[in-house]
Amino acid sequence: MRVIFVDMCFIPYSRADVVGQVSDTKMCLFFIFIFSTLEICQSLAPRNVYTNHWAVRIAGGQEEADKLAAKYGYNNYGQIGSLEDHYHFHHSRVVRRAAFSTRGAHSFIQMDPKVDWVQQQLVKQRVKRYIKSDTRSPDPNFIHFNDPKWSNMWYIHCTDKNNRCRSEMNILAAWQRGYTGKNVVVTILDDGIERNHPDLAQNYDQLASYDVNGNDHDPTPRYDSSNENKHGTRCAGEVAAVANNSHCIVGIAYNAHIGGRLC
């Protein structure tokens, strides 16, 4: 009888064992594959990085902690925050960064009866927190208002595939994230605003308004036959016209308070 070795497995080879040879070989190769895969996975797994700092819980106060630190070669950096009986120990002769928990005379501290608990500290990787950007185009049907001019506000609907305009304001995306002007006060410095306008009255803020010419808080524009004093009202509407009131347009910051300063 001959014996064929395949790595750590052995397969008896004889005329009587021909049928079982193939099966045994496959089984042996299967185990070799499993062990190799485990080894690769372990090598790719994130490893702990140990520091030369310890957290230690010692009853008896600062003086007792100092004694134990000196006994085992540590420096006591004091109590850890507001954690009573928890101390920050540092060992200058231990490697600052290591792949394994260190061993030595200093490690005997964990067996000291006066020590309730000890833990060698690990390096923690900090990751910046951020809001993941949604790269998908907002659904134009996700937000809809009943204001008659809503569909004509091209600068809001530029993300609609049916429109060919270009806009970098991302108004719909801002609304979807809750930015609608709430708790914001805006004053239009122009030729006044119509404070009783049905699209502005709900958001009108008297304290944000003033008539420099009349020295009062009424920014109502001066009406004449040419109707030239309308620019301020139009600007106020673009900023804070009430939304979903079945009237005219929707303001970019439709929940903002709006005022006017007539100059």
Task: Tell me what you see in this structure.
This protein is an alpha/beta fold and 263 residues long. The chain folds into three domains: 2-44, no CATH class; 50-122, Peptidase S8, pro-domain (Alpha-Beta Plaits), CATH 3.30.70; 136-263, Rossmann fold (3-Layer(aba) Sandwich). Helices cover 21% and strands 19% of the residues. It has helices spanning 18-44, 61-71, 171-176, 231-240; strands spanning 2-6, 9-13, 50-58, 75-79, 86-90, 115-122, 185-190, 210-211, 257-262. Strands 4-5-3-6 form a four-stranded antiparallel β-sheet, with helices on one face.
Q: How much helix is in the residues?
A: 10-25%
* Number of domain units: 3
Q: Give the termini distance in whole angstroms.
A: 111 Å
Name of the level-1 CATH class of the largest domain: Alpha Beta
> How would a crystallographer describe the biggest sheet?
4 strands, antiparallel
Spans of at least 5 consecutive residues whose pLDDT stays below 50 are: 1-13, 134-138
| Named CATH topology of the largest domain | Rossmann fold
Shape: elongated
Could you give the order of the helices and strands? Answer: EEHEHEEEHEEHE
What structural category do the secondary elements indicate? Answer: alpha/beta
